[in-house]
């Protein structure tokens, strides 16, 4: 919601301020569709040329995510810590074999079934199950730092894919001023072809050409660039859930007490997502 409100404020203040200072909106509005056709078309063409179909879909999904907000709610973060904590407590008390069915067939797991949103999230499910399976097949003899390195590699790879749309949007923002200049240059070329027209006509044509530069800069620094930054922040918040899962697992493998392993993950959450420790421990006791 806030990104949409911000864009509306941007447009109202820019064009409203121009009109209040005596500027005529008519010529600008007349030029905008043609200049946007050139700039927008060139931008779309550049995206298509520089990305695969999968990446283009990811960019579209990332753009929508800016307006939808983070994928994971506060409850999802709590559930992730609780779910991982339950598995690691079971691992410690009953041994690796007790988790084999849960890790190999998560869709049939009674524990996973209590957290349907996490169960249906492929990336989270695989991070938990693959790490559990590593410890199961090794009978829990793996060195903790080796498990941590494997988890870091898996998380890093997933984060790379998550961040690609934001990088693509930022690259587009960087290119838009130049694309605006392209539209402006074409307008100047058109004007030069009508050099014998009276000054009033030439002035309007030059003004239309300059709208191209204006739109390129406005889109880059007023809309696309900020949306890219917003998407990066949203991704950073969503990525925290993976760090929480890793923290609980690694702390538990180090032999930390259950409450301390849970606290190590809870304390890393942002203020808006961090539940009181007593509430989280009560949730674990109830499970």
List key phrases describing it.
287 residues, mainly alpha, single chain, elongated
Explain what you see.
The chain has 287 residues and is an all-alpha fold. It has one domain (31-287). Helix content is 82%, strand content 0%. It contains 12 helices and no strands. It has helices spanning 2-20, 25-50, 53-68, 74-94, 100-104, 110-113, 116-119, 122-137, 144-192, 199-253, 258-266, 277-286. Helix 3 crosses helix 9 (144-192), helix 4 (74-94) runs antiparallel to helix 11 and helix 8 runs antiparallel to helix 9 (144-192). The chain is elongated and about 90 Å long. The relative contact order is 0.14. The mean pLDDT is 90.
Compact summary:
With 287 residues, the chain is mostly helical.
Question: Into which percentage range does the β-strand content fall?
Answer: under 5%
Characterize the quaternary organization of these chains: single chain
| Unreliable residue stretches | none
Structural class: mainly alpha
Described by the principal axes of the CA atoms, the overall outline is elongated
């Amino acid at each position: 919601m806030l990104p949409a409100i911000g864009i509306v404020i941007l447009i109202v203040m820019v064009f409203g301020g121009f009109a209040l200072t005596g500027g005529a909106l008519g010529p600008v509005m007349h030029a905008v569709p043609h200049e946007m056709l050139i700039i927008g078309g060139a931008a779309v063409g550049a995206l298509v040329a520089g990305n695969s179909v999968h990446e283009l879909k990811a960019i579209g999904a990332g753009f929508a995510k800016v307006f939808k907000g983070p994928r994971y709610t506060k409850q999802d973060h709590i559930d992730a810590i609780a779910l991982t904590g339950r598995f690691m407590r079971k691992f410690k008390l009953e041994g690796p074999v007790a988790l084999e069915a849960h890790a190999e067939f998560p869709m049939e797991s009674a524990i996973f079934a209590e957290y349907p949103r996490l169960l249906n999230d492929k990336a989270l499910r695989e991070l938990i199950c693959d790490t559990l399976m590593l410890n199961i097949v090794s009978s829990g003899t793996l060195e903790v730092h080796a498990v941590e390195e494997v988890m870091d590699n898996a998380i890093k790879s997933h984060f790379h894919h998550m961040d690609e749309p934001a990088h693509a949007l930022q690259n587009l923002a960087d290119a838009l001023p130049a694309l605006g200049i392209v539209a402006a240059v074409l307008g100047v070329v058109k004007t030069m072809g009508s050099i014998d027209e009276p000054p009033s006509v030439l002035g309007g044509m030059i003004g239309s050409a300059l709208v191209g530069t204006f739109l390129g800069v406005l889109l880059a620094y007023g809309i696309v660039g900020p949306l890219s930054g917003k998407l990066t922040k949203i991704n950073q918040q969503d990525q925290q859930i993976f760090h929480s899962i890793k923290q609980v697992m690694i702390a538990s493998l180090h032999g930390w007490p259950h409450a301390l392993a849970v606290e190590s993950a809870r304390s890393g959450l942002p203020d808006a997502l961090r539940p009181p420790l007593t509430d989280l421990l009560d949730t674990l006791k109830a499970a």
